[in-house]
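Exercise (ungraded).
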Amino acid sequence: MSKLTIVANIHADPSQIDLVKAELEKLVPLTRAEEGCICYDLHRDNEDPAHFMFFEIWETRALWQTHMQAPHIAAYAQATDGAVVDFRLNEMTNIS
Amino acid sequence: MSKLTIVANIHADPSQIDLVKAELEKLVPLTRAEEGCICYDLHRDNEDPAHFMFFEIWETRALWQTHMQAPHIAAYAQATDGAVVDFRLNEMTNIS
């Protein structure tokens, strides 16, 4: 079964950029330690400091869904409640 | 100097998906052979067959810009003229 690529785009409220960035950064080591996590890289838009993006690769969709139920994801959602103005997530497959 | 990450989202006209996919696929080996190209992976949205995404990593912005002037990019643009309904590109930096 092919791996799952996730691209998650997070747009912080311009007044809450530092908070969102700090909370996103907390997720990196915790998520990289999870089963099935092949890649979990946080990026920032060079032209928009409020725009962050996670590029993720997971062994299976099931293991990614387990990740989405992890306590640190819930803690992130609570800590950034009201501080994120747009969140879009795409499930993709590498075809090259 | 930190590397450059490019995320390019390409939405094909629903009636031209196969053409756009074929032209995007042609770019992969040619671009991977270019100086400074670290990663150049084509993805497809699992929920929208018309939505493609290139995840790219380049040694420098300058080398990426050289790529954007390459003949195969010009040929792609010509071949897909009118067949792409939306194209967005973000220049990003890996901060994790």
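Further reading is listed at the end of the chapter. For now, observe: The interface with chain A takes residues 4-5, 7, 25, 28, 40-47, 51, 53, 55, 90-96 of chain B (CB under 8 Å). The first helix of chain B runs from residue 17 to 32.
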